[in-house]
Specification:
Length: 436
């Protein structure tokens, strides 16, 4: 009876265990928890949610204060991604808190945070831990009297038509975003000590952050292109985070709106919000820019088996296969800047790997004339791509006593000196004995 109960319990946990870690063999079927301040957001932002579901994501919608919220069960994560569309939440329900969210990211999972003018301290603190600082003024919004959208008729010019995108096709896709993105919300700055966070959409040089309902009495704390509207972070474990100060940027209203930037005669029938957020979501959830390395091999030239030890001055070959997830399958990754180090305390050999453009990278070199414990190291970090950090340890020994050459050409002068001395001694002895 007890065994049957345990079996039933294990079977009931299978769906959760299968979703406990992100399976990048196929992103489809991945579970994402969406926390909302109000369930009405589910319908007002349905176009964005629909784009995720059409790509195979299983969205679990819950109110942010739901007492049953939990990211883990029995030590296993139930979700692969987390979307926080609950900027006003002061406290999460269930077992979810700031520490749990940060642990979620530290475990390699992805996160999207959308704030707005009434962002709570909790949301601000989570963003700060990810390298982003929202404007400290709780009523400040991004204002632009030059780069505003023409449809902003209120006079405060808080509806911005932003088009200062990051120049990275890995993050934003190969198709250029022609129409500006409509943004209405709060700005943030990047922590200069955090080199992992990137500004994806920046404000124009004429923008500033202030209270739109009052006159400026002091200089604004955030101005110009230093204001980031949308930022991303890729952690060292390749977890990805998206942070923006606007919840409405994801809304159906802005997805469907036409846009014309002030001072421009071009009017776009549709704002760039849908294309921009769809493409960046693909990157956040590892549908693009994710690399994997397999089949790391090394061997002596002319041999196929991997040795347990090398000898100094051996000629060796090193190869590795690198693939990129294309959204539907693994495709060969082609680049000319992948390098391998033969490393002991410092690199003794640094070689750029050549590729056959089918995913295989290889090179050959001579083991340095230094013995000890070396490592083959590949450290590959490029903008937009997940980082690769591979190492493989191998000892290197000196020549054994019976492996040296019998006669070393460099020692011929010494051989000659020895034999000439012997010949001279023999001649001297002969002359001394027989000379009268």
């Amino acid at each position: 009876m007890a065994r049957s109960l345990i079996l039933v319990a294990l079977i009931s946990l299978l769906p959760f265990l299968s979703a406990s870690s992100p399976s990048l063999e196929s992103p489809k079927g991945r579970r994402v928890l969406v926390l909302l301040d109000d369930l009405a957001i589910k319908s007002s932002h349905s176009l964005y949610f629909g784009s995720l579901q059409s790509r195979g994501y299983d969205l679990d919608f819950k109110l942010a204060d739901d007492p049953k919220i939990g990211l883990q069960r029995y030590g296993q994560y139930l979700y692969d991604g987390l979307i926080l569309f609950c900027p006003a939440t002061e406290r999460f329900g269930g077992s979810l808190d700031q520490a749990a969210i940060l642990d979620f990211v530290d475990s390699g999972h992805d996160l999207i945070i959308a704030a707005d003018a009434n962002a709570s301290d909790l949301i601000r603190e989570v963003a700060t831990e990810c390298g982003v600082d929202f404007d400290e003024d709780p009523v400040a919004m991004v204002i632009d009297h030059i780069g505003y959208a023409v449809s902003d008729t209120e006079g405060d010019h808080t509806l911005i038509a932003a088009d200062d995108f990051i120049d990275c096709s890995v993050i934003l896709g190969n198709k250029k975003i022609e129409a500006p993105v409509l943004f209405q919300g709060i700005g943030h700055s990047l922590n200069p000590s955090n080199h992992l966070v990137l500004k994806v959409l920046a404000a124009s040089p004429s923008a500033y952050s202030a209270n739109p309902k009052s006159k400026l009495s002091n200089p604004p704390s955030l101005t110009g292109s230093a204001i980031s509207l949308v930022s991303v972070m890729q952690a060292r474990n390749n977890a990805r985070v998206l942070i923006t100060g606007s919840l409405s940027i994801f809304s159906n209203r802005l997805f469907r709106s036409s846009v014309q930037k002030a001072g421009s005669s071009t009017r776009h029938e549709k704002a760039g919000n849908e294309q921009f957020l769809t493409e960046i979501s693909k990157w956040i959830f590892h549908e693009r820019g994710h690399l994997k390395a397999v089949n790391v091999k090394h061997n002596k030239v002319g041999e196929a088996d991997e040795p347990a030890i090398y000898r100094i001055n051996d000629d060796l070959e090193y190869s590795i296969e690198i693939y990129e997830w294309s959204g539907g399958s693994w495709e060969p990754y082609v680049s000319d800047d992948v390098q391998v180090q033969f490393y002991m305390m410092s690199p003794y050999v640094l070689k750029t790997l050549s590729t056959d453009k089918k995913g295989v990278y290889s090179t050959s070199f001579k083991v340095p004339d230094v013995y000890g414990v070396f490592q083959f190291k590949v450290e590959y970090q490029r903008l937009g791509y997940s980082s690769l950090s591979l190492s493989k340890q191998i000892p290197v020994r000196p020549f054994r006593h019976n492996e040296y050459e019998r006669f070393i050409p460099a020692a011929y002068p010494y051989y000659g000196a020895a034999f000439s001395m012997m010949a001279g001694f023999f001649l001297f002895t002969f002359v001394h004995l027989y000379n009268k």
